[in-house]
Write a structure and sequence with these properties.
Chain A contains 18 helices and 32 strands. In chain B, strand 6 and strand 7 form a beta hairpin. Chain B is globular and about 55 Å long. The chains are: A alpha+beta, B alpha+beta.
């Protein structure tokens, strides 16, 4: 067996970057000029006009096109694969199966147990599993060849529903059965005692649907060999993670594998880590000596590149009359499909609110469905859906305003970490300022309407539990003409990373952001950065970029001070010039020492997280909805996101993250669900019209982004905390609470579409 | 993947009919349903015959006497925005404006909208279902939340058109052209239940085309409306929709048609509810009563019981909007 295998999990595989020095980082900025401003995307023009080249756009001379044959059965054993006819089809240049050289690659590792499958495993455990691949001159020829590959399957009984996976007689998906691991337990205090002391207890059960990421750009790669060196253009969130896993899969030294992903069309977690099709493209390219492009169809992306796993969650909460929480309990069941994955998260139950007695049990089962993958705040939106509706119900039972009940239970430390203080904690301020800006009290007291259109408002809070991998390197080169080159391994997955990092350089060096060219996300030419995910991209990379720019700044000020015979402290950088206190601007190019030695180069690193403290973002969101009691239709009229993500690095990209997170949360709340036919285990809505992501008409007409910046000076040297994930965590729960406020129906299952609400209203009325 | 086919674009109706007569051909109007059907393997014709080159199939005209004819190739956008239609048949213009998305309304046509293939996800998916010659209807016991309440026997799809129920409510007539000449069929009889014909959705023969739809001049006191419930605000088929056309004299209902979408394989007339209205003045109470009556005969499947309440509510709303 080879040393490694395809990483399907979110964590980046260590990639051998330079060690991170231990000295503390620089103090963060006070006033800023460029950082925090509403700077438009540095690559906006390219993206909008179509001149940005995405991996899907690539064409090379002689390039072949590949396609994958997938098992149509949810559970089957491949008895025989006959590719002889396919190999003779017009244009076909290579056919890849389990028997091909190099194709015996282990896959889907389970922690502590090793791989559970292979690149082509004869035991197919979900509908969509890979059986063979073909490279041909055209994509049509490749797909036509797939149709004549003759596969003999032994179709096995399948289990599609997580609730049925552990029933006696359920078909075993892996040798050890369908329980992926022993029940995970978390406990602090004594919940039985807590509930006994409680004046009010509520318990609710929830089910959240499986969501598909469906980024704009489908998943795929282009692979090209030059001698024994492999270059892969992959649409990925983390080029280093892909490189390391790909090198392991192919038995290549890391230095001989170059992975590039300069533009990529979104991922939401589904493009973290190596994919099978990337390995296939590399093997087909090696077999044919030609570049090979392998992109999935939209339908395939619904089956085999990840999902947000379905959850079944029961939450019980107990509080004293005054609202003090005394006990919280959650039981969770989830399935990451056919392969190892952590499908649930109890994090919010353990850490969002101060509570002395907490108990959690999480069960995780295999089913014959597509594998789960990290999906924007993995596990958190489902957990918030359950916890925050339970808190809402508790508030009602206690006759306490839902905002007040939450404020009553704001913790000052991370209880989940055994009492570690936060560098800053904005939960209370998000609730207070959010409620104020939303007009919560007035909206809550307002009549809900007497006709069939009822209005209601709801609130939900959240936090994100990951502070990032504190390890990244960046370099900045400044030229005497006032332009700079920024080198960073970070991927810009559509969030504006490049723009924010350019602002950091611009801030330090007194140049305009558009004077910064960015070289990024290329393992052959750029410095290490962890994958862009986990809300860590800015938090991890901006401090490294800042340190690199600061080095350049110091060097420049030194030579300018010498040339001008002024103390360094008097000088500042602005407009591509060194400016004296009198306001005289000396352009960079006027310094001979600079011109002669340009570029000035600085290398910066991300320093470790602050000792003994943890930096996490907090959020509270507010929703107003209108429910039609005749038809069950729900309209989200307005939403407000109060976000403590530390410093606002760029007002525009900050807002985009919050609005995007809310819209994604609207999809989770109201429209999105993968539907699996129970008997055949087949996804019946694997396309963009039956799987319903929200349209512009489903977005709240009024969206408000309210940054709550508590001026955190300790979290890192730029003062920013994560944003991408917290922005979507409480959205759906806030909407569900608003629906309850409007019509008194507790929507426990997602999506809260008219299908469900009409049924709930009908049931209530008998 | 779309299989190969021969593509022809005749410039006359006669040319189109000649191509159809050669057999194994499918018409291409806007293509928004055809391309999906080709891609999903629902259709695999030898020839695809474009109607885009035939000008007389396009357009909206008023005949002497007030009848309005809409050519089958008229786009949904044109119907939604046409002043005459908006004035005389508001329900039709509303329905056209609620179809799919702006892009699809620019492309989709009246004829194509009426002649869509079923939207059942088993039929469209990789299931060898009964309608495709297999031996099982997967929807009967499967994921049938979007399937029918009425008229389902052995096949449970719902007709995907928003225009069809309004046109039935407006007592429109379909004009069909074939080599034998022209025939007129009331829109109500144009659609076929699976129990009437298991393979075809309409009475169109393989060598016939739908040329135009005729709308009778509205009676004095006529009013119409279409109300559609869907899961998202755009680009979605109806969960349930209600088309209502009324004629009234001094406020008293003389004629009423209530036709539902999303509940049957054909536009479904709620005749009990219609009868309740005749001879009475429409008010909130009567609207609720008629709404309740509209679900008479509904036979919900395992996952579509919600449609009963929804159709009652949507009929009530549609009627109240005309009260």
């Amino acid at each position: 067996m080879k040393a490694g295998f395809g990483s399907q999990q979110g964590a980046a595989v260590p990639g051998g970057p330079p060690g991170t020095p231990a000295e503390s980082s620089a103090a963060t900025w006070g006033e800023t000029l460029v950082v925090g401003a509403a700077v438009p995307r540095v690559d906006g023009w390219q993206r909008v006009t179509g001149t940005a080249v995405y991996p899907l756009d690539l064409q090379f001379p002689g390039m072949l096109h590949a396609a994958v044959l997938r098992c149509p059965h949810a559970h089957a054993r491949v008895k025989r694969v006959d590719t002889s006819r396919a190999a003779r089809m017009p244009g076909v240049r290579a056919v890849l199966t389990a028997a091909s050289p190099g194709a015996d690659v282990p896959w889907y590792p389970q922690r502590g147990k090793g791989p559970t499958s292979k690149l082509f495993d004869p035991h197919c455990r979900y509908a969509g599993e890979e059986v063979a691949a073909v490279a041909a001159e055209t994509l049509f020829q490749a797909r036509e060849a797939l149709a004549v590959i003759d596969v003999e399957y032994e179709v096995l009984p399948c289990v599609a529903e997580m609730e049925e996976a552990l029933l006696p007689g359920a078909p075993p998906i892996h040798g050890g059965g369908n329980r992926q691991n022993e029940t995970l337990r978390y406990q602090r205090g004594d919940v039985a005692k807590g509930f006994a002391e409680a004046d009010a207890v509520v318990e609710l059960s929830f089910r959240t649907a499986c969501e598909i990421h469906t980024p704009m750009e489908v998943h795929g790669s282009v692979a090209r060999w030059e001698g024994d060196t492999l270059t892969v253009w992959d649409t990925t969130q983390g080029v280093f993670a892909v490189r390391d896993a790909l090198a392991s899969a192919l038995g290549l030294p890391r230095a001989k594998v170059r992975v590039i992903s300069q533009y990529m069309g979104g991922g939401f977690g589904s493009k973290l880590g190596l994919n099978k099709h990337t390995v296939m493209a590399a093997l087909l390219a090696r077999a044919t000596g030609r570049p090979v492009k392998l992109f999935l169809s939209r339908e395939e992306t619904f089956l085999c590149v990840g999902n947000r796993p379905p959850n079944r969650l029961t939450v019980r909460a107990g509080a004293k009359k005054d609202g003090t929480l005394v006990a919280l309990e959650m039981k969770a069941l989830g399935t990451g499909g056919a392969y190892p994955h952590m499908p649930t998260s109890a994090y919010l139950v353990t850490d969002l609110y101060a509570c002395p007695n907490v108990a959690v049990e999480e069960d995780n089962v295999f089913t014959n469905t597509g594998p789960g993958r990290p999906f924007r705040a993995p596990g958190f939106p489902p957990c918030a859906w359950a916890l925050e509706q339970t808190i809402d119900a508790l508030a009602e039972k206690l006759r306490i305003d839902p905002v007040e009940l939450r404020l009553k239970n704001v913790p000052s430390v991370s209880q989940q970490r055994g009492g570690v203080p936060y560098t800053s904690t904005g939960l209370a301020e998000c609730l207070r300022r959010g409620a104020e800006a939303f007009g919560w009290k007035a909206a809550r007291a307002r009549a809900r309407g007497r006709g069939h259109l009822r209005r209601g408002v709801g609130v939900a809070a959240g936090m994100w539990g990951y502070d990032g991998e504190p390890r990244a390197t960046a370099s900045v080169s400044l030229f005497a003409d006032g332009s700079a080159l920024l080198n960073t391994g970070a991927s810009d997955i559509g969030t504006g990373t490049k723009t924010v990092l350019a602002q950091v350089v611009a801030e330090e060096l007194g140049i305009a952001p558009e004077r910064v060219r960015i070289e990024h996300a290329d393992t052959g030419t750029t410095q290490y950065a962890p994958a862009s995910g986990g809300s860590q991209t800015v938090v991890v990379n901006a401090p490294a970029v800042r340190e690199a720019a600061q080095q350049v700044r110091r060097e420049l000020l030194e030579l300018a001070a010498a040339a001008l015979s002024r103390p360094q402290e008097e000088l500042r950088l602005a407009g591509g010039a060194v400016v004296t206190p009198e306001g005289t601007a000396h352009p960079f190019a006027s310094f001979q020492a600079f011109v002669a030695s340009q570029p000035l180069v600085g290398v910066g690193r991300r320093h470790p997280h602050p000792k003994g403290k943890v930096a996490l973002p907090f959020v509270a969101q507010f929703a107003e909805v209108e429910v039609n009691t005749r038809t069950g239709e729900v309209r989200v009229l307005r939403m407000l996101g109060a976000q403590d993500s530390g410093r606002v690095m760029n007002r525009l990209t900050f807002e985009s993250q919050v609005f995007g997170g809310i819209v994604m949360g609207v999809g989770f709340a109201l429209t999105e669900a993968r539907v699996v036919d129970r008997r055949t285990g087949t996804v019946v809505n694997a396309n963009w019209h039956d799987y319903k992501i929200p349209t512009i008409k489903d977005c709240p007409a009024e969206l408000t982004c309210l940054p709550v910046d508590l001026q955190d000076r300790e979290c890192n040297s730029v003062g920013a905390k994560g944003l991408g994930e917290p922005a979507t965590i409480p959205t759906a729960a806030a909407i569900a609470n608003a629906v309850y406020h409007a019509v008194g129906v507790r929507v426990t299952d997602t999506p809260a579409s008219p299908v469900q609400i009409a049924a709930l209203l009908q049931r209530r009325e008998g | 993947m779309i299989p190969n086919f021969r593509y022809v674009r005749p410039t006359t109706v006669a040319g189109v009919l000649e191509e159809l007569a050669r057999g194994d051909a499918r018409l291409h109007a806007g293509g928004s349903d055809l391309l999906g059907c080709l891609r999903d393997g629902i259709l695999a014709p030898r020839s695809v015959v474009s109607l885009a080159g035939v000008p007389e199939l396009r357009g909206i005209r008023e005949l002497a006497g007030g009848e309005v004819r809409i050519g089958a190739m008229t786009t949904l956008r044109e119907i939604a925005s046409h002043p005459l239609l908006r004035e005389r048949y508001p329900g039709l213009a509303q329905a056209a404006g609620l179809v799919a998305s702006p892009q699809l309304r620019n492309q989709g046509t009246l004829g194509g909208n009426l002649c869509q293939k079923p939207r059942c996800w088993y039929y469209r998916g990789r299931f060898q279902c009964a309608r495709k010659g297999g031996d099982t209807c997967y929807a009967a016991e499967g994921e049938n939340q979007y399937h029918c309440l009425f008229g389902g026997e052995t096949c449970y799809y719902v007709h995907p058109s928003d225009l069809a129920p309004v046109l039935v409510a407006l007592e429109a007539t379909a004009h069909l052209l074939g080599r034998g000449g022209r025939r007129a069929v009331s829109l109500e009889r144009f659609f076929l239940l699976p129990s009437q014909d298991f393979q075809r959705e309409t009475v169109l023969e393989a060598d016939e085309i739908l040329a135009e739809v005729a709308l009778p001049a509205p009676r004095p006191g006529a009013a119409s409306v279409y109300r559609k419930v869907r899961e998202r605000g755009s680009w979605d088929f109806a969960l349930v929709g209600a088309a209502v056309a009324l004629s009234r004299s001094d406020g008293v209902v003389e004629g009423a048609r209530i036709v539902l979408s999303g509940v049957a394989a054909i536009p479904w007339r709620a005749q009990t509810a219609e009868k309740l209205l005749v001879g009475r003045r429409l008010n909130a109470a009567l609207a609720a009563q008629a709404g309740a009556a509209a679900s008479e005969g509904a036979r919900p499947l395992a996952h579509n019981g919600y449609k009963v309440r929804m159709l009652q509510g949507v009929v009530e709303e549609a009627l109240r909007s005309l009260a």
